[in-house]
Amino acid sequence: MLLFRKYLLRCVWLGIIFISLTLSDCVVDVSSKNTFPIRDLPPMNPVLKGFLDDYAQFFKDGMVATQTPGAAIVIVKGDSVIFQRGFGVREVGKSDSIDVHTVFRVGSLSKGFAGVLTGILVQNGLLDWDEKVKEGFPEFSLKDKKQADRIKLWHVLSHTTGLPYHAYTNLIEKGFDVRKIALQYIPGAPLSAKEGEVYSYQNAAFCIIEEVMRGKLHKSYQQLLQEDIFTPNGMSLASCDFESIQNIGNKALPHFWTGSFWRPDEISPLYYNAAAAGGVNASISDMGKWLKLLLGHRPAIANEVTLDRVFSPVVETGSERRIFRHWINRSDASYAMGWRVLNHHNDTIIYHAGYVNGFRSEIAFNRKDDIGICILFNGSSELAGECVPNFFDRWELVRDSIH
After folding, report:
1. Rounded distance, CA 202 to CA 165, Å?
2. Where would you tag: which of 103, 139, 367, 375 has the fewest CB atoms within 10 A of its CB?
């Protein structure tokens, strides 16, 4: 009887996923915000359409195979959203489908916003890449005071301050304020390298950029992000605080895999205390607009010089084994300003992944081919690790027929 009940529950769950995938099979005209079936889109290059259809089928099959609760995808080519769709449900056990306006947490994709925001402020003459952190945050210190005096903005954003790997991330996860961590804990941390020489991924130290901005510009990081990226780029559902996502009705809930099923959970306030590292909330429609900016199609906000600087590799990340180890060589991965830079065959892929509070996210784009993809999940699905390599491997096979 117990085995029969488990079988029945699995069948019901797979049925819910199938129905949700079908109901969510739509895109959005970003100019009118009206949803309409894919068949009503303007005529598309048949090779490109086939590429998108095949990728959508791969993703649907992966959703079912992994029983992933919900997800959303956007694909941008040039200045156009060519694919935008929600899959699955916002919360397991309920019937609300994910659509293109459903808000997710994007985790460490937030770091890319911090890098571009800094670039915009440099572009506008308000900051400088080579200015010292202590110019905006005089209290900043390290165990080696002379090294602290030398730390520049680009060291913070490229994880090359010399602090050890994930220094004091545990305190962020306990809810500590980043300023308190910076003033009371970071000065006592042992240094593992000279600044600018060794990559060592950070959350707390990365958020020192917030303190620099506050000290120099007398505005909060969240305010600057809203004024310089979200509002001018039309990202109307994007935010960077706990209260905003709590007040949105159309939001996905995070899920955790118990070993036999996905369990929904509450949205946590943690990492909103480290907004630059992991505090952004956004819908997939917002992320489509973000991709357009990243691909250079919003020069009034971020020009080509700014984007070139943000995406220029600073340090190799070869010691980090977890980034697509079966797809790229360790020597082909670097870190820029809040972004990973991956060399795959003859292509440069700008990339980042995110995880926070049961949400998973992936974003990647090829500036040369002017194409990018973002995927948001409300569960840490195994499918997430396959999406970017699968997308660009498929693209590599068809792009010559599309350009």
Report:
1. 6
2. 139
